[in-house]
């Protein structure tokens, strides 16, 4: 066991620069580094460091009031155990009492972890890449350049890049996002002209673009053939008037709109944050010290999203809430369509309208809600067309070919039927299947029934109706004899009136 016997800590502060280099919105620090050197009881030494883009004092303070006690005496060959011990102090009482910030604990845990792994490699007398299972002894590299600077003109930009080309660099990662899209594209034109078409060009926005600008920017970037686009969207994006920590989801949405691989993860502080990023965006295509993501359609990411997995406890976005409400209304439309027919499509049109009535700039950030709207609109149109087709079928095909009652001679059981009690019961219907007689409803019998003669009437109509030849259509298949006027007429809607006798049709 190689226990940590002693340690040394160095704080490095670079001098201030008169003309500092800038990314899109913050200056590059001249150098704030914490260097940690660990020595074991066997005399092995390990070296680690932690960088800070902010003041270095929060990283120095823990070493002055007891942080070293967490490390001394620990087994340097068990770096994971030491890391977990330090990481617990990102949220506990001792760290709060002593003023150890969460960011300081995370950064210092990295420095100590690097020093421990340095000792592991020396104890095994092997480089770490072989201990980790690697087999390559060379790694491709690139130069980060193209920074902004106060008063920096095109010639200074050309000179900086030409110097790096002459040094033999083949890959260049440049900074954009600090100017308008048109100005940044002009800078990229100059950069590509200097480094040539054969060199690798990477573009780093440092989270300076909002989502709308990013959607426009990826289209303009295609002309420069970047190998990847790094951290293109802002870490905080306004959604429906509020702000959410939503860059992971926006990175996925942007990947759906471009073929340029997107890089991210540099601003994640922990492995848990990187895991959540992978769960939202998808699996990395290839790496450069941080994950690089392609179009989710090519790497199997979900279309509707919403599965954020472990470690991501953020509330649902406006898009996810809108999609959830949309699916509930869609289900209600399905229920109403089954129960009340035409009411269902109206609900589906409402669901689609809730989305398409929003401004285009808002709809561009709501892909899940758009999917619900598309399904609702297609279902509403399809169901409406189906209902219209069914109605037309009934009107023009079924009704003209419907078969009406007949034959019109009643069976013997109905001749003595005598339950008529009102003018509406002057006719008798015989059910051809049950052979039972009953009063008709509203003076007419239905399909499957025979309309019998009026109660108390003779079995035959007068002779004057025998030669009646006024049938004109299927609706005129009956002849009625009026008792009062002794006149024969065609029946109305296949039914005779209460004061009329129903006669047989013409042979």
Can you walk through the features of this model?
The chain is α+β, with helices and mostly antiparallel strands. It folds into three domains: 4-131, 2-Layer Sandwich (Enolase-like, domain 1); 143-299, Enolase-like C-terminal domain (TIM Barrel, Alpha-Beta Barrel); 318-394. 37% of the residues lie in helices and 16% in strands. It contains 16 helices and 20 strands. It has helices spanning 57-64, 79-87, 93-98, 102-124, 128-131, 154-166, 181-195, 211-221, 247-255, 271-281, 296-299, 318-340, 343-356, 360-363, 367-398, 463-466, and strands at residues 4-13, 21-22, 32-40, 45-51, 143-145, 148-149, 171-175, 200-204, 228-230, 236-239, 242-245, 262-263, 286-287, 291-293, 429-431, 437-438, 449-451, 479-482, 488-490, 500-503. The chain has a seven-stranded mixed beta sheet with strand order 5-7-8-9-12-14-13, with helices on one face. Strands 1-3-4 form a three-stranded antiparallel beta sheet. It is elongated and about 135 Å long. Residues 154-261 form the Mandelate racemase/muconate lactonizing enzyme C-terminal domain. Keywords: Magnesium, Membrane, Metal-binding, Transmembrane, Transmembrane helix. It comes from Durusdinium trenchii. Pfam families: MR_MLE_C, MR_MLE_N.
Counting structural domains, the number is 3
CATH fold label of the largest domain: TIM Barrel
- Note poorly predicted spans: 239-244, 283-289, 293-315, 402-408, 419-425, 455-459, 472-476
Characterize the overall form: elongated
Number of DSSP E strands: 20
What value does the Rg take, in angstroms? 43 Å
Can you tell me the CATH class of the largest domain? Alpha Beta
CATH H level, superfamily name of the largest domain: Enolase-like C-terminal domain
Protein name: Arabinonate dehydratase
Cofactor: Mg(2+)
InterPro entries: Enolase-like_C_sf, Enolase-like_N, Enolase_C-like, Mandel_Rmase/mucon_lact_enz_CS, Mandelate_racemase_C, Mandelate_racemase_N_dom, RHMD-like
Keywords: Magnesium, Membrane, Metal-binding, Transmembrane, Transmembrane helix
């Amino acid at each position: 066991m190689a226990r940590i016997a002693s340690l040394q800590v160095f704080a490095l502060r670079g001098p201030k620069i008169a003309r500092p280099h800038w990314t899109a919105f913050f200056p590059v620090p001249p150098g704030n580094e914490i260097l940690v050197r660990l020595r074991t009881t066997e005399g092995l030494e390990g070296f680690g460091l932690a960088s800070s883009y902010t003041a270095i004092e929060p990283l120095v303070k823990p070493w002055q009031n007891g942080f070293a006690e967490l490390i001394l005496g620990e087994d340097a060959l068990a770096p994971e155990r030491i890391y977990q011990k330090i990481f617990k102090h990102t949220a506990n009482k001792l760290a709060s009492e002593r003023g150890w910030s969460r960011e300081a604990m995370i950064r210092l845990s990295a420095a100590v972890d690097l020093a421990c792994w340095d000792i592991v490699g020396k104890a095994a007398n092997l480089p770490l890449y072989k201990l980790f299972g690697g087999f390559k002894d060379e790694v491709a590299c690139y130069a980060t350049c193209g920074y902004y600077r106060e008063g920096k003109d095109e010639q200074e930009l050309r000179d900086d890049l030409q110097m790096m080309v002459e040094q033999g660099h083949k890959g260049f990662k440049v900074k954009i996002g600090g100017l308008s899209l048109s100005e940044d594209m002009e800078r990229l034109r100059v950069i590509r002209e200097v480094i040539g078409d054969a060199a690798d060009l990477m573009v780093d926005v440092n989270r300076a673009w909002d989502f709308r600008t990013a959607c426009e920017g990826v289209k303009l970037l295609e002309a420069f053939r970047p190998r990847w686009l790094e951290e293109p969207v802002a870490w905080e994006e306004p959604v429906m008037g509020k702000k959410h920590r939503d860059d992971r989801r926006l990175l996925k949405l942007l990947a759906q709109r471009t073929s340029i691989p997107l890089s991210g993860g540099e601003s994640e502080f922990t492995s848990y944050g990187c895991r959540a990023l992978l769960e939202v965006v998808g699996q990395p295509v290839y790496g450069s010290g941080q994950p690089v993501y392609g179009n989710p359609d090519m790497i199997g990411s979900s279309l509707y999203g919403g599965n954020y997995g472990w470690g991501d406890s953020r509330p649902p976005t406006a898009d996810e809430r809108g999609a959830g409400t949309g699916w509930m209304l869609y289900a209600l439309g399905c229920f109403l369509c089954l129960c009340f027919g035409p009411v269902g499509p109206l609900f589906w049109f409402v669901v689609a309208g809730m989305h398409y009535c929003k401004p285009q700039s808002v709809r561009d950030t709501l892909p899940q809600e758009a999917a619900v709207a598309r399904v609702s609109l297609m279902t509403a149109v399809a169901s409406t067309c189906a209902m219209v087709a069914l109605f037309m079928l009934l009107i023009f095909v079924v009704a003209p070919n419907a078969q009406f009652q007949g034959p019109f001679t009643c069976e013997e059981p109905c001749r003595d039927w005598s339950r008529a009690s009102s003018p509406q019961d002057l006719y008798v219907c015989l059910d051809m299947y049950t052979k039972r007689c009953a009063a008709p409803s509203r003076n007419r019998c239905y399909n499957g029934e025979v309309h019998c003669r009026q109660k108390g009437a003779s079995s035959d109509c007068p002779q004057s109706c025998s030669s009646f030849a006024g049938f004109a259509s299927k609706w005129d298949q009956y002849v009625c004899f009026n008792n009062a006027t002794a006149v024969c007429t065609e029946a109305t809607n296949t039914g005779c009136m209460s004061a009329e006798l129903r006669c047989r049709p013409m042979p």
